[in-house]
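Hi R.,

Here are the chain sequences for the assembly we discussed:
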Amino acid sequence: MMVTLTIDGRSIKVREGSTILQAVRENDIYVPTLCDDPRLEPYGGCRLCLVRIKGMARPVTACTTPVTEGMEVETTNEEIEGLRRTIVELLLSDHPTDCMICEKAGDCTLQELAYFYNLRENRFEGERRKYADSDGNPFIERNMEKCILCGKCVRVCNEVQGVNAIEIAYRGFSAKVCPPFEKDLDCEFCGQCVSVCPTGALMGKISMGMGRQKDIEKVESVCPYCGCGCNITLHVTRNEVIRVSSRPESLNEGWLCVKGRFGFKFNSSPERLKYPLIKRNGQFEETSWDEALDYVAERLGDIKDSYGADAIAGLSSARCTNEENYLFQKFMRAAIGTNNVDHCARY
Amino acid sequence: MDETDCMVNIAKYFLEFTQAESCGKCVPCRIGTKRLLEILQRITDGRGRPGDTGLLEKLSNDIKSASLCGLGQTASGISVMSIRPTSMRSAVLQVYARTFSRIPYLKSSARAAPCVQGYVLQELLWERRNSPTRSSRRYA
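And here is the predicted structure of the full complex:
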């Protein structure tokens, strides 16, 4: 069932049950948001997507209001922009304005909004939350002074990851996102929360101080860790991977695990194996591919001749592609002549 | 509470309560009521800044329109109603009128604490100093 409504004078058809915000997004109309993520349940906390609906006494949030037939929506006017401006200004009045040293600068939604509304001076300067704590976990840098309490991290942890590692504690001005009993974060470290955070409150520790957002070249790739094949985006600067993210429109919807998101240091590790090694006199020695392959073929042939093909077994890796795994079992069955072939992902 | 109490102090008292009760989910209520209280505190401490009453009214109205639930929508109402520059001013002016000129039609029971009276008079002075009629007269 389709519903027809009017948004900013345009007649628009959308699926019944969609929210005004979905209708607006589908039709490329800009409405600012901080707490919205299409992959999460609507929250209605940031109040930035306020719109005017004809016949309603007060502005309502587009993200939590379902469309109805014949609805007349106004997404922008002087009143609404005034409210949005006040909201962003209030957020900035309780936010360290240290964009010049913030890791997120250039990719921060709050910074974008401050730019959009041209906010330099703040009418609402006042007390700011101060937190002295730093989280001792190895992966996620938490700077709660920069938190705007949009609740995205809490929702993603709950709805998507199902871990419930963090929750909003206290209330009102003292409200704070933290793990139970305000201890250090001790979770799966999937970093889903880092990927949805609109400000610099949550960042990957490995990426801190590695380079500005503007210098990053984004390279699309596939995660090499397991057979799921999640789409990843490598953030490269000075020919080094400094961060891994994933696009929300990818097949894994932008969700990654701790290995895919934070386990990329092997890429530039000096200990990384780059040449084949042959053990001679108890020592591994670098050698050429030709020599290594000849050596393996010779030894496999010797074993097969002496003890039979079933004395050999092959174990392949989930980090290989389907084609490589296919070739490997083909090699074991046709060239060696044994069915002793297995794969690490079967355990 | 009776007619001798200062409305600004009463508004501050209620705001302290609503600000403590705010759940913190929506921005206008969480930070907005905090800022309202800070402005009132400033005024009653005698540290009011030019334009504070106007800011108070603007912020109150924005919180009222933008808040998620009834708490934020009504929390600021107390300041909209009782600290509106006009009503606060009239309260102070009425007190002064009563005290100094005894004009009968300005008789009112509304009162403001001395610090608030001081702020309102100061603000009137700031406004007069910046009013176009005065400056044009000065540079004419």
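The radius of gyration of chain A is 27 Å. The first helix of chain A runs from residue 20 to 26.

Let me know if anything looks off.

Best,
T.
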